[in-house]
User: Fold these one by one.
Assistant:
Number 1:
Amino acid sequence: MSLEVRLTNVLQCLQQNGLSAAGFVSGVLDSRHTVHANSQESLTMNAARICAQLYNDKNSQPLVFAWAAGTLCGELCKEDEDNNGAFDKWPKKRQRHAAERNVALQTIKAVVMISIWLQSTNEQCNCLQGWMGFFMKSTCIPEKVIEVMAHAGLSVSLSTIYNMVTSISKEISCNIKKEVHTLRAAFAYDNFDITFNVAQPTLETRSSFISMTSATVIPLYGIDESNGEVLRCSAKLWASDPRNPLPSSFPVMNEIRSFLLLHKKDTYNWQTNPTQPSPREEAFAWHVHAILVQYGRSFKHFVDKLGEPETVQKIPVHKTNQIPCRSMNIKQSTTDGNVEVLVNLFRQGGIGDKSENDFDAEHDVDMSEHVILVHGDLLTKEQVDSVQSSRKIEHTPKNRLQYVIFLPGLFHYKMACADTLWHTYIQPKEGCEDENSLYQHIGILRPDETGKMVSKPGFRRVHDVVHHDFWASMLNCWRLEAES
């Protein structure tokens, strides 16, 4: 009798007794009768072959794999569940952190093992291996190590990593041009340094130091197609620019006139109601309250009632997706270096002046009538201002960098303010003789740093000293007022 006939007879018998094939196997394994011992042994001895056949079947393969993955995760985490009693003597916070860390580590191990199995069956299931390979290449891991990790199933091959880098570079380049072509994006750049050290310097191989420049494209929030023409003002600004040898718009807007106009339009210092303080005075009063509450010993219980200062011209919170540009092997700390950086950034963005010979009318966008906002540190601003002053006699907007509007960040404004305070109150020798001068207060607050404060203190030290002296002076004024 053939196997097919015997299987048909057995299935008919199971159907007559109200049992399915799965129910029959489950019942045999769960049975405790000695009569069924031989059948149980047969199933257990051939369990691996049965699982392999179920896995090879295209209908049951997803279910078998999901069960195997869940079972693996459960077994890996079982040790933490069994050891819960060992943490009873620990503090609750430490016990919770240790348990969370162990569970996270076990989950990571489970994901790694499952990812290795997935890649071994289908090489396109390489999400973890791709991330690992890209990470190792970006951190300068030796290629031999990457090859070993690839053979172990923890990374993709070197050729795949190179293809990933090429593909990502092309995609980012397209994104940069797509955003910059709208002429509604700003550039921000700064330098970074790389030191290549050698274990034993020789005449042929020495340690080298390279200063390069990194940049990013920042889409402007609130500027769209409806109001994008506000940035088309390069010629109008140049007409009243003080650097323009032949200005056509008067009055010329120099820095003093700009500050006067700013104060005329300022409402922050105006007292709208004679019985109420101005917004500036209210802000100062809040800071005085904050100093008394946070640093005074007798006002700690008012912390909950302090609140926040009243907002003035609140800037809405908005998430900006910036686009990193290609790093440039350019020394940005020089004047010529800043010009090269700007030219390189505009070339990456696909914008230029249509009157120039290198302008590609098919792929580039004309920016001669627009302004481009550029962000950087204070030294970058000095270099860009120097370039614009020396090129003011050029005939084209591109050659005189007419389109560049430099905007330092808030942190760099704070640096400029700290530098101004240092030059005004600390550096001059005449200001150090008064017993109420900031220099004398530094001798009390930081007696070991008086020499450093006069020479090159740096931003952070000046920033902390000014705040510390202001807090101490305010608390001392409150003490004298309370005693009187």
Number 2:
Amino acid sequence: MLPPLSFGAILFALLLAASPPTATAVNHTIDDTFGDSSTGFRPQYAPGFQWSIGGPICTNCLPTSFDLDPKQLFNGTYHLALSQNVTLTLNFTGTAIYVYNVLVNSIANSPNFSTTTNLTFALDGVRSTASTSFVHAQTNLNSNITYNALVYSTASLPYANHSLVMTNIGPLCFFDYAIYTTQNASALPNASTLPRVSPHLR
């Protein structure tokens, strides 16, 4: 016959059973074309007709002079904007987000075409600091194309539903993918029960 458990041992076991699981941070990717690897959410492009899809699924839809290597693109695809003030919206639930674009320094056979990238970002409706803009000026560097270029990042956000809007000031924007940090879904309530940060402009 086993000896009876002490009151302390019983109390410890009850507290351990009642304790919620520890949340762990995980990263998910939002592809420009195929969307969120976890939720399936796809980026929202506005207006949609001013964004072009590039990659194996869309042959001959962009000038071949861009010459991007699909092997260096996430999932082999990208979205291109050549118009000013078009937007891309990424919705995510988490505590951090990182946005990656492709930067181009020149276009074959079009030396007078500006490849400057000029972007602004608004998180939950707020765009108030220098860190919410990104500018890449056209250069004469030997490396014509830069892949996986980090154009925006923010961390230490409250765990909640967030919305990030990227605006192309022009003239050129190649969006590839974004990565956001969230918490292990098994350890936290459903995202639909979380607060959404109220948008407000400054």
Number 3:
Amino acid sequence: MTEILLGLLCSTGQLTADNDHGRKIVEPPKHLLIALWFLATPECYRSVSNCFGVTLSTTHKTVRRVKSALMALQDQFIQWPTGNKWLKGYVSCSSSLMTPYRDTGHLTPVEKKYNARHSSTRSLIECSFGLLNEKWRKLQYMDVLGIPDACNFVYAACILHNVLLASDGIEDGALLPQDIDDCAPALAEESVGNAAHTKRNNIAALL
């Protein structure tokens, strides 16, 4: 698995051997190991640099290079839905997060179906985040500067997850969180504008 991943990363041209201020050159395999350790544990950059015997600046550069290499693989391992497929995984408005219909005992069949889809989608998303957080513990302890950098780390973790699935697979349920709240329809309906209600009604009619 490591050889496959290393080959993919090297093919991007983002990994280069680094001379650590006169010390032994950091080769691509060590780049990968440093980055994997950083993502898979809650340890800080300094702790990782001590563990691998490299300077703090080299650890920063190494993780950044591997992250860039992973981002370069996104077209191979990340597939975004198109057209009406967005309805299966994206139910937000431009101004606020879309909520389920409040169940007062008088929901129409269309509204009940929408709430069921909303709940199942929310559960799927929470399970996905649970998988990522269990495997890549750094996502639980983000110590990066800026939202774009944090988003790129999440993106890199998703790509790594998909590479593992494509190569070895993951045992069903092995990393799922213990308690997933499937009660999305019970959430209180926030006060949203007419545009949000209209969009929700349109989506419900298409399901």
Number 4:
Amino acid sequence: MSSQRVSYDIFLNFQGKDTGKNFTDHLCANLVRKRFNVFKGEKELERGTPVSPEITKGAIEKSRISIVIFSKSYASSTRCLEELVRIVECMKTKGQVAIPIFYDVEPSVPRRQKGGFQEAFTKYEEMLEKTENVQMWRNALEEMANLSGFNLQEYRDESELIKAVVEEISCELSGQLPFINFKKLLAGVNSCLEKVQIQANTIKVQWRESTMAPPLMFPFFFFVRCFRITPNKGSLRSLQSRFNGVNPQWPHL
């Protein structure tokens, strides 16, 4: 993250109705136990301190890492969506690290706004006059859900997931290189492949021996072109945040 005054190590973005009193509360407690300074809006409310949008926006900007916890009714909270837009902005302009957690929802649900997300956005489009805000929320959801993160369904239980998240946060904030989680790496690749599949459905690919690369070389060219990996200082998560908004392309063979 670019040099600036930092007030918090971690900002938690979550829907209180779904996870505020269970998963998010337990995650926050474990992070605080590691002596991390965590901004969890509902904790301020419990103390009787009103949390205005300005305070929340400032907390996001002054945090090193933002954790976005996607849950079934996440999109029903305009507060969550407004915070998410600011988190994505900070990720792009300030180099802030953002980590999505998919709690009881598959990554494709927020990414494509399916299920409860689709229902919430249908209501927004009917009720709100400023549809540009709705589009900003949609874009932010897609960009965040495209990042590799943590999926509850890939862990035995919540405690195992929390342990994994805390370990990665510890590595990120200490500057250590974490052990590569190939499940999360593949999640990012699958997201990229989904975009490629959509593109492929709109074009006709003509296979000619003269233009085809050897079968074993094609995946290599695809991966490099898709992710455009370049060496950079910092953690894997910081590097991964640079891939946000990647527009995969077929390799020019």
